[in-house]
């Protein structure tokens, strides 16, 4: 079986399938048969579910805990009508609990293929530790390690190796973001998901076939064109064990209240 066929069977693009080969999860081209791919799919599904459940246990109890209600059962999520785009996720997105669960829910529903880098994961863990270190009963360093491990376990193919060999010449508002653009180019990402839009000039991105969107903008735009987008996003509330009111509150506190309205959520209990 060709690498292209294996990628299709796993719901991945060629770059991600190549990463699985490099990691040893996927046999080399021509060596994978239907039985091997079925085993790999099942293994990946179990490993991802365990990682995402652990991440939900880490985050869920701290998102709008005082709001009442009972989580509602997950509804059916229609299969996406188009191939999932590869999206490079900036650390500022992954570091926010509700944002990362929206991204992961969308990925689990087959609506995006997440990409990040070792540096992004390091920055994510560091930012999470700073966010929670002053809060009673929280272990910043321990939680950061747990967060990074969960992301690596859920999507091992998502990490763009640092030796990708791509460099860009343009000057940037924040030179610390150069690695984000270079990694996104290296993995063939369709866009960069970030809350720091001003740090990613449109002209620079366009020169490399990229554009940037905030999570609020991107997910709201998908609700308008994909009937399965809203149920896919709501699946995050189910995994986090949040009622609709709690989820609405968590979105509001995460400065995503507009997205909550697009999802039809009411912020009052």
Protein architecture, described:
- The protein has 269 residues and is mainly alpha-helical.
- It folds into 2 domains: 3-47, no CATH class; 54-220, Rossmann fold (3-Layer(aba) Sandwich).
- The protein has helices at 3-10, 14-23, 34-59, 91-94, 97-108, 118-132, 140-154, 178-186, 202-206, 215-225, 229-239, 244-253, 257-262, and strands at residues 86-89, 113-115, 191-193, 212-213.
- Helix 1 packs across helix 2 (14-23), helix 3 runs antiparallel to helix 7 (140-154) and helix 6 packs antiparallel against helix 7 (140-154).
- The termini are far apart.
Compact description:
The protein is mainly α. It has 13 helices and four strands.
If strands are numbered along the chain, what order do they take across the biggest sheet? Answer: 2-1-3-4
Number of structural units classed as domains: 2
CA distance, first residue to last residue: 53 Å
Please state the structural category. Answer: mainly alpha
CATH T-level topology of the largest domain: Rossmann fold
**Helix coverage percent of residues?**
40-55%
Do you know the CATH architecture of the largest domain? 3-Layer(aba) Sandwich
- Helix tally equals 13
β-strand percent reads under 5%
Broad shape:
globular
Estimated radius of gyration? 18 Å
The CATH class of the largest domain is identified as Alpha Beta
Number of strands: 4
Largest sheet features: 4 strands, parallel
Estimate the mean pLDDT confidence: 91
User: What is the H-and-E element order?
Assistant: HHHEHHEHHHEHEHHHH
Uncertain runs are none
């Amino acid at each position: 079986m060709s690498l292209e066929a294996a990628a299709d069977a796993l719901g991945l693009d060629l770059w991600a399938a190549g990463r699985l080969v490099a990691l040893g999860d996927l046999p080399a081209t021509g060596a994978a048969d239907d039985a091997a791919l079925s085993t790999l799919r099942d293994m990946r599904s179990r490993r991802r579910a365990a990682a995402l459940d652990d991440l939900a246990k880490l985050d869920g109890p701290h998102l709008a805990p005082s709001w009442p209600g009972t989580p509602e059962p997950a509804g059916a999520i229609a299969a996406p009508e188009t191939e999932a785009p590869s999206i490079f996720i900036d650390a500022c997105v992954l570091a926010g609990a509700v944002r990362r669960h929206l991204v992961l829910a969308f990925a689990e529903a087959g609506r995006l293929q997440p990409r990040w880098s070792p540096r992004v994961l390091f920055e994510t863990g560091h930012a999470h530790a700073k966010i929670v270190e002053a809060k009673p009963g929280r272990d910043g360093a321990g939680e950061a390690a747990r967060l990074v491990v969960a992301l690596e376990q859920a999507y091992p193919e998502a990490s763009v190796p640092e030796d990708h060999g791509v460099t860009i010449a343009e000057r940037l508002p924040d030179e610390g973001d150069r690695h984000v653009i270079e990694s996104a180019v290296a993995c063939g990402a369709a866009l960069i998901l970030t809350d720091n839009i001003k740090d990613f000039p449109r002209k620079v991105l366009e020169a490399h076939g990229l554009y940037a969107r905030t999570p609020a903008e991107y997910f709201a735009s998908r609700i308008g064109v994909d009937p399965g987008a809203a149920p896919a996003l709501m699946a995050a509330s189910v995994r986090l064990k949040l009622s609709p009111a709690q989820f609405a509150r968590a979105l509001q506190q995460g400065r995503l209240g507009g997205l909550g309205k697009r999802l039809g959520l009411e912020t009052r209990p």
